[in-house]
Amino acid sequence: MATVENLRNTLITKLMAVSDKDILNAVDKLLSTFSDEKQIELTKEQMLMIEMSLQDLESGQTIPHKELFDQEREWLKTQ
To answer: CA angle 52-50-30, nearest 5°?
Structure first.
């Protein structure tokens, strides 16, 4: 059986692939109910990733979403 962290990461990966607004709204509504009841604590690894992301933003090491999407499409063609 998957650990909570593995399951969370799997769900995040699946959510990143969803482009249907209705599905995303439904998931958001479901998660909003949960998050109103309990505060989510981040792991050390998650906090580190957030800190690294903020550093990337501050140093300008980002690319526009469309460019990333195009790169992903090209990568998928090679798989």
So the answer is: 155
